[in-house]
Amino acid sequence: MTYNPLYRRTGLIGIKQGMTSIFNELNQQIPVTLIKIDRNQVSGDKDGYLQLSSTDTDKLSKPLSKHFQSLNIHPKKHSKEFKVSNESKIQIGTELSAAHFVPGQFVDVQATSNGKGFSGVMKRHNFKGLRATHGTSISHRSQGSTGANQDPGRVFPGKKMAGRMGGETTTVQNLKIVRIDTQNNTILVKGSIPGRDNGTIYIKDAIKKLVIDGQNKFKKLGSQPEHTSKALPWGVDTLPFPAATQEMAASYPHILQAPAAPKKDD
């Protein structure tokens, strides 16, 4: 079955390896984040969701260990469900590769952001603070009045105040994949992603970058082949469908890199 932009593919579970920079064929320096895809295997399929598990471990509870044993899969440390279309189902036990994504395409990356502890309003919400002169004493970085009066006599929920900052599930959208190392099962994404090194992240196809004739992919336009080329970014012809397995990746080159986009004429 060939890829269609109206189909939703599964994502992958990765481990953030840190940042570096590479050069393309035009000698342009590109900052990238390395994402390691560590033994992603399909471990469940139910109600339009595909469950993936990654990172082998021997430290699991008995119920979870028996669950993986019943599937004939080595126990895994992380599991995640991805919403997929009916055409994107994959057999349980299949191991996926980093080549599931294609250099040049855009992805959405989800992770837990760095926790910064209890922070004031200037750091947390970018308040300007109070005046530095004219009688202001020891409250230069305070938030000032919270705006409550006798009516309503309370502070509304969601008011921007000091509190815990960071440590939340954060999604960065429309990041470009620059290079894929099929031998080391590593994805290089342009720019930064949330979280600390060695943290678990979830990566999937960018929804907002799939555009067909100016309409998003949820618009029912049929399944004509010409829609695929219009929906995918420049330099990307198609995506592996329903997924790229380790067996498929063995026949790929060790390094897959996105071509540099041609410069627009002035």
TrEMBL record:
PANTHER family given in the database record: 50S RIBOSOMAL PROTEIN L3, LARGE RIBOSOMAL SUBUNIT PROTEIN UL3M
Protein name, UniProt field: Large ribosomal subunit protein uL3m
Biased composition (Polar residues): 134-149
Record keyword Ribosomal protein present: yes
Predominant subcellular localization, coarse grouping: mitochondrion
Any one of the GO CC terms: mitochondrial large ribosomal subunit
Key words of the record: Mitochondrion, Ribonucleoprotein, Ribosomal protein, Transit peptide
Organism lineage: Eukaryota, Fungi, Dikarya, Basidiomycota, Wallemiomycotina
Subcellular location: Mitochondrion
Superkingdom as given in the UniProt entry: Eukaryota
Record-stated family: Belongs to the universal ribosomal protein uL3 family.
Pfam families: Ribosomal_L3
UniProt-listed GO biological process terms: translation
Region of interest (Disordered), ranges: 134-155
A single MF term (Gene Ontology): structural constituent of ribosome
Key word Mitochondrion present: yes
